[in-house]
Write a structure and sequence with these properties.
5-stranded mixed beta barrel; alpha+beta; DNA repair protein RecO; OB fold (Dihydrolipoamide Acetyltransferase, E2P); elongated; 7 helices
């Protein structure tokens, strides 16, 4: 039985002489795997929709194992991303994080829309470092983590100045700094952005100008949290770090 899926290609790997196996994150079925037969052939009608980051409609057979892509219709290839090595590095990290952080065939329309809007913002020229951070923070709830960012994670004090504590799972006030000797003393602007990124709808993100020090602190907090709690190892992260060093 074939079903039309609105999806984004997370990964595309060669399979045999002429086929590809696609990992697609769809609005209707969540993450699915499907064989695109003949997609490696340049004249194949599936060639253009079998590239990573491609957003389109896919007519697929969905069963207990790998499905089959019968037809594909390209909505947005995100060519801007594919033609820029830096943007490719950020986008590859984002799609791998989603792929590693989700189970097969678990429907999540919110996450689909988040992925689409994230790639759209990157392709439209928004700061990829900031868009990556927004995606990472919003992905935490999908992974089952909810950092406390509105009040002290230890005593509930709503007044700062706050530091970020990986150990306590969120922000902590001066009265509780001693609870975590390794807390991260960051700017209050960094704390405010962590909270903003966690709660705001990404479609409402306008032009964001963030100082380099704040970007560094945001990345420090998010990376430390992921390393402590997620257990996710991403191959694309090494490539991304190399690109950031070049940038």
């Amino acid at each position: 039985m074939f079903q039309k899926l609105e999806g984004i290609v997370l990964r595309s790997i060669d399979y045999g002489e002429s086929n590809k196996i696609l990992t697609i994150f769809s609005r209707e079925k969540g993450k699915v795997g499907a064989v695109a037969r003949g997609a490696k052939k340049p004249n194949s009608r599936l060639a253009s929709v079998s590239q990573p980051f491609t957003y389109g409609y896919f007519l697929c057979s969905i069963g207990s194992g790998l499905g089959t892509v019968q037809q594909g219709e390209n909505i947005d290839s995100f060519r801007t991303i594919k033609e820029d090595l830096f943007l490719t590095a950020y986008s590859a990290y984002i799609v791998e994080l989603l792929e590693k952080g989700t189970e097969e065939k678990v429907v999540n329309p919110f996450l689909f829309e988040l992925l689409y809007q994230t790639l759209k913002h990157i392709s439209e020229g928004y700061d990829p470092k900031i868009i990556k951070n927004i995606f990472e923070i919003k992905m935490l709830s999908v992974l089952g983590f909810r950092p406390i960012l509105t009040e002290c994670a230890v005593c509930g004090n709503p007044d700062g100045p706050f530091a970020f504590s990986v150990k306590e799972g969120g922000i902590i006030c001066p009265n509780c700094y001693h609870k975590d000797p390794y807390h991260l003393k960051v700017q209050q602007a960094t704390i405010r952005l962590l909270k903003l990124f966690y709660y705001i709808d990404i479609t409402r993100i306008g032009s964001i100008n963030v100082k380099e020090l704040t970007k560094k602190e945001l990345n420090q907090c998010i990376t430390a949290y992921y390393e402590e709690y997620s257990g996710i190892y991403l191959k694309s992260k090494k490539f991304l770090l190399q690109m950031e060093e070049l940038g």
